[in-house]
Amino acid sequence: MEELYYFVQVATLLSFSQVAQSMGVSQPAVSQKIKSLEKKMGCQLFFRFGKRVMLTPEGKLFLAYAENAILAFNTISKTLTDKTIKQLTLAGDEHFLSILLKTLSDLDVQAIEITNSRQVIELIENDTYDIGVLWGNHSLPGLHRVELSSNRLVLAGSKRLINTYRTSGTLHLIRYDVAGAYKNFLENFIQTVGLTPTRVTTYNNLNLIKKAMLEEIGLAVISTDIIYDELHDGSLEICEFPETTLSIKNAMIYKQNHPQIDQITTLISKIKQSIKTKY
């Protein structure tokens, strides 16, 4: 790379002596660098006329490549040594993080699944993680909130079990064992609609809940984004309550004075576009 720097300087000043003076080295040292580069390239890069030099046709062609190589080297060198650039970390809901990592597999992030909203907020406030993913309408001093989506809460399951519930009132309810805002929204829906299950099965994993729904173990109160694919392929349906419409919002939070603010806003913009495309 050093030889390329010397070459570009000589090609710019067209003088070995001026380059030597500007770089604080001897003229023979400059000449040796150019000769070494010409030997490696297998061609003459300069015509020499006493103290004057001119680029050969090969030298003119090589100059563009040399300048681009130096620019690329400087760019990657700055990136690797810039301490403000680092891998971002996310903490939040298992379902939402799984969607992000699946649809945006090129994201350079580290993620941890945490369903408790209060714990997520604490991790962001004490700088343990950079970005938090939350359910609900959180507004906290010092934290910036970006809403990602708003989805309906519904009672859903197979068509057969929905028909059974409508005709007989028999309800085997599958419940999500979760803390924080999502749990509060679920409880509010159950009370508002007036669900009185005859049996309850609890799971602490959303994938297990979807599996139980598909295997017709019961009906579940769940947000539509979680069963988006199943609703569209017809494997699950919604048991509608026309008089009740409840929605749950999810958002990302980060500290307003975060040192990687540009990285964070770029990442969130990409995530929002992905969510818009999917839903």
Automatic annotation (TrEMBL):
Belongs to the LysR transcriptional regulatory family. CDD domains: PBP2_LTTR_substrate (cd05466). It comes from Pseudolactococcus chungangensis. The keyword DNA-binding applies. The keyword Transcription regulation applies. The lineage of its organism: Bacteria, Bacillati, Bacillota, Bacilli, Lactobacillales. This is LysR family transcriptional regulator. PROSITE patterns: HTH_LYSR. SUPFAM superfamilies: Periplasmic binding protein-like II, Winged helix' DNA-binding domain. GO terms for molecular function: DNA-binding transcription factor activity; transcription cis-regulatory region binding. Residues 1-56 form the HTH lysR-type domain. Pfam families: HTH_1, LysR_substrate. Transmembrane segments: none annotated. Keywords: DNA-binding, Transcription, Transcription regulation.
